[in-house]
Amino acid sequence: MAWIYLLIASAAEIVWAFTLKASEGFTRPSMIALNIAALLVAVWFLVQAMRTLPLGTAYAVWTGIGVVGAAILGVILLGESASPARLGAITLIVAGVVMLKVVEG
After folding, report:
1. What residues form the membrane-spanning segments (predicted)?
2. Containing structural domain, residue 79
3. Quick check: 41 and 12 in contact, CB under 8 A?
4. Which end of the chain offers a freer environment for a tag, N or C, measured as fewer CB atoms within 10 Å?
């Protein structure tokens, strides 16, 4: 169950990061509200996951999934660069997250 909580926390972190950008410097009230809600959900589910998972694993997976998800949304929705170097860096992050899951069991 901890891994499910961690995936929910990670998805909420992606929403948080995206709405941080979409809030346009905290000038769009609807995005600010969604941003705060997403952050609260992300942290709550991260805490639930950390009841079972080690701190280092949970936090690294949470931030790793968040980084990859935010980068993908940036490319798809915001027209950010999808250069080979950037995609390679994202691939390395994914590999690290997978390794943490494998070694954690």
Report:
1. 27-47, 59-79, 85-103
2. 2-104
3. yes
4. C
